[in-house]
Amino acid sequence: MATGRVVLDGRRLGRGAVLTLTGWTSATLTRHRRTGRFPTADGYDPTAWWWHSTLAHWLDQQEHVCPECHRILVTAGGLRAHTTRMHNSGRKSAGRR
User: pTM value?
Assistant: First the structure.
């Protein structure tokens, strides 16, 4: 039965897979790693990788996920800015003509 949750197996995820999973750019991933908003890599071979279980645990703790495109934002302000910038273009406010 589908629950809408990400199901991850026991394999390792590299940087590219993390970017696809989160919807982030490389610069965003680097920034969140530096500031501690993303888990420390589980290993290096020679580049960073994470166990699926590490990312599944981190994903379960994320509160700011865009309901339209499922991009992960690490702050409420980031989610508001993303939603306004990416999903409200071309929409008119109620009461305006």
Answer: 0.68
